[in-house]
Amino acid sequence: MMTALTSLSPRLRQRLLSGVAIVMLFVVWEAVCVGFGISNIVLPRPSEIFVVLVQKLPLLWPHAMQTLYTTLLGFALGTLAGVLIGALIGVSRLAYDVAYPILVGFSSIPKVAVVPIFVVWFGAGTVPAVLTSMVICMFPVVVNVATGLAHTEPELQDVLKVLGARKLDILWNVGLPRTLPYLFASLKIALTLAFVGTVLSETVAANKGIGNMMMIASGNFDVPLVFAGLFILAAMGVALYALSALLERRMTGWAQRGNDIATV
User: Tens digit of pLDDT for each residue in 83-113?
Assistant: First the structure.
């Protein structure tokens, strides 16, 4: 067994071991529920959850698509705003001194306290969820982009200035490309936070989405359906994380050495 594993490529071996670990987790979960007679109101068995997923897929699909759409839109807006603000902070000391304390203060506010304000401004529905997803995933992007720009070598900038490059040319051709590893690192964090923001808003002020469906199911004590919603969120999160890691390898392969445990 060990000989067969060592003969595989590192990436394939990593994926195989990850798959085995996931299967073993579900097996142990099932065995614990059966062995201790745990009620499905407390903790449903994985087999029950998978049955619910299959049986109620037509019901769950529109909610999943709504959550995915809201999350991707909020993530895209948050990333765009984060890159713009991070670039401004990274190249301007004045902007850093003025804007960074404001961003830190805003990031420290629990986003559950912001949702009611968005509801008052825009009403219940998709807009508050998009805005919550946007603001919750923006801060990691700002910090990483600003950090990447701050690590651009001053000597290189001086040489480019001597050659006649403008500050905008240096930012576009040198600063931002060198920031890509930092940006993709922040995107992996921002993706998970975007789902948190979306589901948080859906549980408070929405009539559609996985968060709304889970709230209704928990009110009806349909715990297997609640866990089915969690499984859907986990699957979408893993899929988007894997896509982000794939894009990272394609665009920042020059910055990676050896096996990166943070990639998929």
Answer: 988 888 877 777 777 777 888 888 788 888 8
* Average pLDDT across the chain, whole number: 82
Do 130 and 205 contact (CB within 8 A), yes or no? no
Whole-number pLDDT of residue 260: 47
Task: Write down the pLDDT at residue 134.
Answer: 92
The answer to whether the beta carbons of residues 56 and 64 sit under 8 Å apart is: no
CB 95 within 8 A of CB 152: no
Closest CA to 216 of 63, 29, 84: 63
Rg (CA), the chain: 22
Residues 181 and 252: beta-carbon distance below 8 Å: yes
Q: In the chain, which stretches have pLDDT less than 50?
A: 1-2, 259-264
Which DSSP category does 125 fall into? S
| Contact in structure between 140 and 86 (CB atoms under 8 Å) | no
CA dist list (Å): 173 to 94, 121, 242: 23, 40, 28
Report the Cα 220 to chain-centroid distance in Å: 29
Which H or E element spans position 249? helix 223-251
Cα within 13 Å of Cα(117), Cβ side = 8
Q: Give the pTM.
A: 0.83
> What is the pLDDT, as a whole number, of residue 259?
46
CA quadruple 220, 206, 77, 193: dihedral sign? negative
Domains of the chain: 63-251 (1.10.3720.10)
Which among 84, 181, 185, 198 is positioned nearest to 133, based on CA atoms?
198
Question: What is the predicted pLDDT for the residue at 262?
Answer: 43
